[in-house]
Design brief:
Length: 748
């Protein structure tokens, strides 16, 4: 019986864990080529930066942090794929660097990094593997996952030690390359919208999915940044009135092996491998640097329409997965320096469910992330970020810590503290659920809002206390430390889960197309199918479902906080019951623009646009401060009041009693703050009546001091909402609220 250290790799490979080097130049055999000249260059900025060097000579400065490495080579590739290696001999503060004259924009390159192979201590250097520059501005080529791209011998007979056997095969022919980019762009012609948080309406969309089937976009531009910049795409956004698009990941990403083996891909893109590069698959103009300019033009076009660009970013993990994952970049540069490892350093600490977690406490990792963020703001023009699994970034050594290095650095950064920052405030680790806990600079996805609204409209809430908090800005979560109502990003649906239409059409997930035997995706959907599972020809059921969609959208857009819509929900988009369409780069995941031709769905789009316009016009619907609930004048009128169907103010007992009806009064007379000229902000007052019961109910309209008359602006019982009903009722009138509907009334 041999020991693990005596096991042998395939021919030409060293003994496991010995650190021996194979034959050939730095572990890799190559055809002889003249070595380019390399000058010392500079250790900053990191990455490959084209510039003018000594004596006015143009070239590129390469700088790579590789703390424990023994040698670093830049590998340059010509159009035929021939590789030329340049050894970086300068080392400054663990940064290897050099200036190579004559290397121009468009040059494809990668790194080979040499060092010890000792997985038991977390050391996984392997110079046979070509590595993507973490600071690459553009990436050319697709990530496949053949055996050659793994640092270990993937098919080693004894799988329990396979990750400890180094694979000596050259990965260069099988991996994408970084591209040198000319970053000269001063953005003088760009005008950022700078929409205040309180005035914002977010619209989450997928660059490819939003544009892929749009009939108004030229076919060659569909699925691309240029397609999103097209007037036909922007026209829909401006018609709705949204102020920002929140783009699903556009950092360069790779596909997981288990998906590729099933003929699928990672469609959503939450598997980043290049934090500076726009994903090449979304470029119409080319992938040797052209994608950078195309992305910038998209941002400019959106800004010109008054729309901000927020990126969904994935800094919590990378596409290199765990110890059995591929070696594509950071794992081969300095595995111990970039990733959180367990006590057994062969294994990765996994707070993300994706195999690894970036070690954000390490200075070089923190620098990578903040350099990336600043780059996207200053050089790519974006206006903010939504951080996937942000709790993983806020962990110190183990626990989530709101004084963590990551949050502290962001708070004092002169660029980043001024842009929009949205946390997905949880991860899968112990103590990872942190809704309401992020510091004042941050807004958060509020899943308690999502759950309460879903439960109210399917009549699953035991009482209306939770609903009252969520409608009025979630003060129980955010009224501390100077936080404001806009700390809550309110949403009913997101990319992850059912679409809005599926939420009222399915009670069970139907993810068979994902090839995981329907085991993937959440079972906690809080959905109601209105009596029939899936699509139906019953007009009664279809009518009820459309009314429920109107109820959900109206609730969202009348709630205090920042509303987030998901692209296509306003069109009645369906994913056929798939609540985890992360691998569906097809009609399941794309928007079906043919729905705009159907009157029922067109009416839903019209209602959405009208509600957003109403929200923009009325400050009381997008307050900058929490309600006080106290009377500010002798008549007893308060800025927020709650009413029962009897027309009486709710008592403590009413909040704890089962109820299907809730009246919310918003006073426009007592809005805190002043306008830009210092004048008090005064608005109309509104009464919203939400009734989730199946049968109609009577509701008595509150009298003075609340109002003398009420005008109906929105009645979700009506299919056509293009024009407001315009009905006026006297205060004290007993009106009938249709079953499962919302009435919005303006005080007149």
């Amino acid at each position: 019986m041999t020991s693990a250290a005596e096991r042998r790799a395939p021919a030409g490979q060293p003994a496991v864990g010995t650190g021996q080097q194979p034959s050939g130049l730095n572990g890799v055999r190559h055809a002889a080529a003249p070595a380019p000249v390399v000058w010392p260059g500079a250790p900053t900025p990191l990455g490959a930066r084209f510039r003018t060097g000594p004596d006015g000579v143009a070239g590129t400065n390469f700088a790579l942090w590789a703390g424990g490495a023994e040698a670093v080579r830049v590998c340059l590739f010509d159009e035929g794929g021939r590789e030329t290696q340049v050894r970086l001999t300068e080392l400054t503060h663990e940064i290897w660097h050099g200036f190579v004259p004559g290397v121009m924009p468009g040059q494809r390159y990668g790194y080979r990094v040499d060092g010890r192979w000792d997985p038991w201590t977390g050391a996984r250097w392997n110079p046979a593997k070509l590595l993507l520059d973490p600071y690459a501005r553009a990436v050319d080529g697709e990530f496949g996952l053949p055996p050659e791209v793994y640092g270990h011998v993937r098919d080693w007979p004894e799988q329990y030690v396979a990750d400890t056997v180094r694979d000596e095969r050259d990965s260069a022919p099988y991996v994408p390359k970084g591209v040198v980019v000319d970053d000269d762009d001063d953005w003088e012609d760009d005008r950022r919208p700078k929409t205040p948080w309180a005035d914002s309406v977010l619209y989450e969309l997928h660059v490819r999915g939003f544009t892929k089937l749009h009939p108004g976009i030229p076919e060659e531009l569909r699925g691309t940044y240029a397609g999103l910049a097209h007037p036909a795409a922007i026209e829909h956004l401006t018609r709705l009135g949204v102020t920002a698009v929140e783009l699903l990941p556009v950092h360069q990403f790779a596909h997981e092996d288990h998906l590729l083996r099933r003929g699928l891909v990672n469609y959503w893109g939450y598997n980043s491998i290049g934090y500076f590069a726009p994903h090449a698959g979304y470029a119409a103009t080319g992938t040797t640097g052209q994608q950078v300019g195309e992305f910038k033009r998209m941002v400019r076009a959106l800004h010109a329409a008054g729309i901000e660009v927020i990126l969904d970013v994935v800094y919590n993990h990378t596409a290199e997965a765990g110890e059995l994952g591929p070696t594509l970049s950071l794992k081969g540069i300095d595995n111990r320096g970039y990733y959180r490892l367990q006590g057994d350093a062969r294994r990765y600490a996994d707070y993300t469910g994706c195999g690894n977690t970036l070690h954000v406490v390490q200075p070089q990792v923190l620098r990578l992330i903040t350099d990336s963020l600043r780059y996207w703001v200053t050089e790519m023009g974006v206006d903010g970020f939504r951080f996937d699994l942000a709790a993983a970034l806020a962990r110190s050594m183990h626990d989530v810590d709101m004084l963590s290095p990551f949050l502290a650095v962001i708070a004092q950064d002169p660029v980043l503290h001024r842009v929009k920052l949205i946390a997905e405030p949880w991860d899968i680790g112990s103590g990872g659920y942190q809704v309401g806990a992020f510091p004042p600079l941050w807004t958060e996805w509020n899943d308690r809002y999502r759950d309460a609204v879903r439960d109210f409209w399917r009549q699953a809430l035991p009482d209306v206390r939770e609903m009252g908090y969520r409608l009025s800005g979630s003060s129980d979560l955010y009224a501390w430390g100077g936080r404001r109502p806009y700390a809550s990003v309110n949403f009913v649906t997101a990319h992850d889960g059912f679409t809005l239409r599926d939420l009222v059409s399915y009670e069970r997930k139907h993810n068979e197309a994902n090839g995981e035997d329907n085991r993937d995706g959440t079972d906690d959907n809080r959905s109601w199918n209105c009596g029939v599972e899936g699509e139906t020809q019953s007009e009664r059921v279809r009518s009820l479902r459309r009314r429920q969609l109107r109820n959900l959208l109206t609730t969202l857009l009348l709630s205090t906080g920042v509303p987030m819509l998901v692209a296509g929900d306003e069109l009645g988009r369906t994913q056929r019951g798939n609540n985890n369409a992360y691998c569906q780069d097809n009609e399941i995941g794309w928007l079906d623009w043919s729905l705009t031709a159907e009157p029922g769905w067109r009416a839903l789009t019209d209602l959405t646009a009208r509600l957003i316009a109403l929200r923009h016009r009325h400050p009381v619907l997008h307050r900058r401060a929490f309600f006080s609930g106290r009377a500010h004048s002798a008549d007893g009128l308060r800025d927020l009041a709650w009413f029962t169907p009897r027309g009486t103010e709710m008592t403590e007992a009413d909040w704890y009693a089962p109820a299907a009806t809730l009246g919310m009064y918003l006073s426009g007379r007592d809005i805190p703050g002043r306008d830009e000229r210092g004048a008090p902000v005064v608005d109309d007052s509104f009464l919203a009546v939400l009734h989730a019961g199946e049968d109609p109910t009577a509701f008595v309209l509150p009298g003075p001091p609340w109002a003398r008359r009420y005008e109906v602006l929105v009645d979700t019982d009506r299919e056509d909402q293009a024009e407001p009903p315009g009905t006026v009722h006297p205060a004290g009138a007993r009106i009938t609220v249709p079953g499962r509907s919302v009435l919005l009334l303006r005080v007149v």
